[in-house]
Amino acid sequence: MSKPPAYLLISHGSRDVRPQIALEHLARLVQQAVSASFPAPLVGTATLEFGPTCLTEQIQQFSQQAHTQGCEHVQILPLFLLPGVHVIEDVPQAVAQARCRLDQTSLRGLKLHLCPYLGCHPGMVRLLKQNLQTHPFSTWILLSHGSRRPQANLVVRSLAEKLGARVAYWSTSPGLEDCLHATPPCAKLGILPYFLFHGVIVDAIAVKVEQLQTQFQVELNLLPPLEPTNELVHLILDCLSSALCCPAYD
User: Fold this and answer.
1) Which phi and psi (to 5°) does residue 78 adopt?
2) What stretch or stretches form a coiled coil here (predicted)?
3) What domains does the chain contain, in order, with CATH numbers?
């Protein structure tokens, strides 16, 4: 049996320990799923910010570990939901820098495959719809972080349309408050946070939701963000499959 690739899951990173705990849990679930086809697969994690070292060094160190275990290539999946600056610039730059460093060592033949970011998977719509269907609200708001890249916000708007939801952003306009101005008193709305893992921002959203309920006299029901689940793991496995991976740094 051929040696499978090594898999590296990259998230944003946070000073809050909860996202890192969730990321490591997710990596274990992915490892368990992959082990059904390959023995002892190598699945690691890295963060763009607040990691033990810069992302470039984390990629390089994981690649060295993969090479030691006999892997011939590494598949790198950005666990980001929007095609913002991190996805378009920061992560590819770190991968390219790691590739250059590896080329100066005995690991020159090791291949790095940068996969499309998690949020672009077509199955994301289905996953979010499953969350909506378990709650009986006729009006929904899809709340995303937002980006300074207009194209990224258009992706969120398109996703909201597919879900039949209004769209709001945490870091730009329209915000949650803008979505509620035309809402009649006593209305019941569901808010689906398009975020990965609980953390500081999701906590702040919960506080804001409580304030807006009082201000607008409406019932706002905040769902949890995306967390490590079997459904999310299946999505990740699809992203990591060779059909969806882009060998940008062979």
Assistant:
1) -75, 115
2) none
3) 6-119+228-249 (3.40.50.1400), 123-222 (3.40.50.1400)
Pairing of strands 111-114, 246-249: antiparallel
Interacting residues of 173 by C-beta distance below 8 A, sequence separation 6+: none
Distance CA 250, CA 109 (A): 9
Q: What is the pLDDT of residues 158-214, one digit of tens each?
A: 999 999 999 999 999 999 999 898 788 878 999 999 999 999 999 999 999 999 999
> What are the distances in angstroms from CA 246 to CA 127, 153, 249?
23, 23, 9
Global pTM exceeds 0.85: yes
Phi, psi of 190 (to 5 degrees): -105, 140
Closest CA to 161 of 125, 131, 117, 130: 125
DSSP 108-161: TT-EEEEPPPGGG-THHHHHHHHHHHTS--SEEEEEE---SSHHHHHHHHHHHH
| Residue found under tokens 């006999």 | 70
What is the distance between the alpha carbons of residues 156 and 128, in angstroms, rounded to a whole number? 12
* Sign of the dihedral defined by the CA atoms of residues 224, 229, 234, 236, in that order: positive
Contact yes or no for 40/1 (Cβ under 8 A) = no
The answer, yes or no, to whether residue 38 has pLDDT greater than 90, is no
Lookup result for tokens 């499959």: 241
